[in-house]
Amino acid sequence: MNRYRCFVMLLLILLLTGCSSYRDNGSEEKKVDMSSDESESFPLPETDYDDSRVQRISVAFSSQRDFPEELICSDGTKLEFIVYNRGVLGSDQEIFQGCQAGTISMFLGNITVCADTVPEVALLDIPYLVEELNEYDQMMQERIIDWLQPYYHREGLQLISASVNYMGCLTSQVPVRTEEDLKKLKLRTMENIYRKAYWEYLGVDVEMMAYDVACHSLKQGKINAMEAGILALANDGTIHDFDYIIEVKQVPVVGTLVMNREIYNNLSPECQMELRTWARDYMHQDDPTRIYANQYDLEILEPEGKLKEMLYSGKQVVIDQLKADLGEDIVDDFLDEVEQFQAGLN
Q: How many CB atoms lie within 10 A of CB 257?
């Protein structure tokens, strides 16, 4: 009996050992197969950038506009853009201040936003420096960006690119064809003392207003014309309230891409150069004036004759005011740059 019990126990031990051995061998085979499948079915993708050199760049602006997800530089650095548009981080002014502080890497917006921080950009408010769009943009690329750069550096900023998108115009509910018609305007201009001084000199009833206040005043009939970005007017529908576009063309509408200088200096020289080159192409836009005039059935009026002469006459008033605010040397130096550019065209 004891022999029988021992035989049964021995048999059970052998059976259990065999089953356990089978399960372990099966598991090993599966591990080996899975490892093999991973290496063959999921190879690492080939990349043209160094994965250890990814730099995340935050970009903010108040409009709605496409912006690339990344820029891969020739030195293997990948700039990965984190985009905040439609004003999710605040107003243009707040975004620009964030760029200066370094909490935001780059700001995309109109150059007038910079005026409180970089007052020298107000020199672009001098009327009729260059009247033709293409020539003004050429001057911007060849001379003005470099001329303004030290003033941006002073404030901890780098002017990556600036592009003249179109020349200034008024949207109006009343036509302006003569000098007398200017007196019919109840004009809103941006919060800019040089623009206000210019229109006051011409005898226009003008008031400085923030854009949202101006839209409300327009609905109430307090104003009948606006000096404002035509893109903004189209985006929010305010353009429907006007009948005319008056092509004054006295100043440029300039879009800029500005970067915190410390963040910019941390980029390699290759990245800096390629970012500037890319930005130049990205910032360029076709003149939207006639596109929107056709789309919204607005009549375009081009000042001629005595009206045009009168518009030109306000130039010196702005120059004198800028000399009083910025100093004669800075203004004269800027005007020399403009003169040298114009001489090169002849």
A: 23
CA 264 from chain centre, in angstroms, equals 16
Q: Can you tell me whether residue 110 is helix, strand or coil?
A: strand
CA distances from 225 to 108, 125, 167, 198, 293 (A): 27, 19, 17, 16, 15
Helix, strand, or coil here: 330? Answer: helix
The amino acid at 181: D
Identify the three-state secondary structure at position 39: helix
Q: What is the pLDDT of residue 266?
A: 95
pTM of the model: 0.81
160 backbone dihedrals φ, ψ, rounded to 5°: -75, -45
Assigned token pair, 68: 């690339």
Q: Is 90 exposed, middle or buried (0-12, 13-18, 19+ CB in 10 A)?
A: middle
Length of the chain: 346
Cα 231 from Cα 245, distance rounded (Å):
13
Which of 63, 68, 56, 58 shows the shortest CA–CA distance to 92?
63
| Beta pairing, strands 252-260 & 186-189 | unpaired
Distance CA 160, CA 272 (A): 9
Q: Can you give the pLDDT at residue 235?
A: 85
- Contact predicate 83/107, CB 8 Å: no
Among 79, 107, 105, CA closest to 93: 107
Q: Which helix (H) or strand (E) holds 91?
A: none
How does pLDDT run across 178-219, given as a tens digit for each residue?
999 999 999 999 999 999 999 999 999 999 999 999 999 999
d(CA 279, CA 281): 5
Predicted local distance difference test score (pLDDT) of residue 61: 87
pLDDT over 50 at 38, yes or no? no
Structural contact between residues 196 and 212, judged by C-beta atoms closer than 8 angstroms? no
Residue whose pair of structure tokens reads 């910079």 in the numeric block:
114
Pairing of β 170-172 and β 299-301? unpaired
Average pLDDT, the chain: 86
> Could you give the C-alpha distances from 333 to 258, 323, 326, 330, in angstroms and in order?
23, 11, 11, 5
DSSP β-ladder status, 225-226 and 70-72 = unpaired
